[in-house]
Specification:
The complex is a heterodimer of chains A (about 120) and B (about 110). Chain A is mainly β. Chain A is built from no helices and 12 strands. In chain A, the strands form 3 sheets. In chain A, strands 2, 5, 6, 10, 11 and 12 form a 6-stranded mixed β-sheet that branches. In chain A, strands 3-9-8-7 form a 4-stranded antiparallel β-sheet, with no helix packed on it. In chain A, strands 1-4 form a two-stranded antiparallel sheet. The N and C termini of chain A lie far apart (about 35 Å). Chain B is mainly beta. Chain B is built from no helices and 11 strands. In chain B, strands 2, 4, 5, 6, 9, 10 and 11 form a 7-stranded mixed β-sheet that branches. A 4-stranded antiparallel β-sheet of chain B has the order 1-3-8-7, with no helix packed on it. Chain B starts with a strand and ends with a strand. The mean pLDDT of chain B is about 95. The chains are: A mainly beta (about 120), B mainly beta (about 110). Chains A and B meet through β5, β6, β10 and β11 of A and β4, β5, β6, β9 and β10 of B.
Chain lengths: ~120, ~110
């Protein structure tokens, strides 16, 4: 079963529109973390944000905002006033304790965002 | 700021050959992770090391092996290469193995097996 589900495979928006990327996760652990990563066309994976399972406060960073809802196991990412430079594949990831108690990070399938000028 | 360095950036090998990918973590990071990303796929966890010991193992084929050295750099050794091994291989490092330590990724090695 997929631990991290990003149901939107591809999204296209026109520049300056707002867009929300959905992420639903599955875990039995009470302590875990969630990440968002950006993968632009150049290929590198860029860390955007981390959220722990005990902190449901929404976070805003410039045009980016994140909505964590434990009740629905969701950690959605909104880009306000999108720009062409936001075009990338965005991955949601779950950090849990793997075998031996060490961190294991599982990625979702990614959402490809295309911002059209 | 220093980032994770991977070498080579690109590698072309033939079937049944071997390949070695190298990863130099961010200074003072003691944990290294290897991921494989096929075309249009999400990164799949292969293996991780903490303080030079294997800490976890994912979907790494038996034909692959990896280790972390005393200077914390890591190498992924791939033998009997198959066409299906063509992918982008990422190394990531983090400060400590604890939950929530963000993974910082290198630019990846693109392996093409012909």
């Amino acid at each position: 079963a997929q631990k991290v589900t990003q149901a939107q495979t591809e999204i296209s928006v026109v520049e300056k529109e707002d867009v929300t990327l959905d992420c639903v996760y599955e875990t039995r652990d009470t302590t875990y973390y969630l990440f968002w990563y950006k993968q632009p066309p150049s290929g590198e994976l860029v860390f955007l944000i981390r959220r722990n399972s005990f902190d449901e406060q929404n976070e805003i960073s410039g045009r980016y905002s994140w909505n964590f809802q434990k009740s629905t196991s969701s950690f959605n990412f909104t880009i306000t006033a999108s720009q062409v430079v936001d075009s990338a594949v965005y991955f949601c990831a779950l950090s849990e304790a793997g075998s031996g108690g060490y961190q294991k990070v599982t990625f979702g399938t990614g959402t490809k965002l295309q911002v059209i000028p | 700021a220093a980032g994770v360095i991977q070498s080579p950036r690109h590698l072309i090998k033939e079937k049944r050959e071997t390949a070695t990918l190298k990863c130099y973590p961010i200074p003072r990071h003691d944990t290294v992770y290897w991921y494989q990303q096929g075309p249009g796929q999400d990164p799949q966890f292969l293996i991780s090391f903490y303080e030079k010991m294997q800490s976890d193992k994912g979907s790494i084929p038996d034909r692959f092996s990896a280790q972390q050295f005393s200077d914390y750099h890591s190498e992924l050794n791939m033998s009997s290469l198959e066409l299906g091994d063509s992918a982008l291989y990422f190394c990531a490092s983090s400060l400590a193995q604890q939950l929530g330590s963000p993974l910082h990724f290198g630019n990846g090695t693109r392996l093409t097996v012909t």
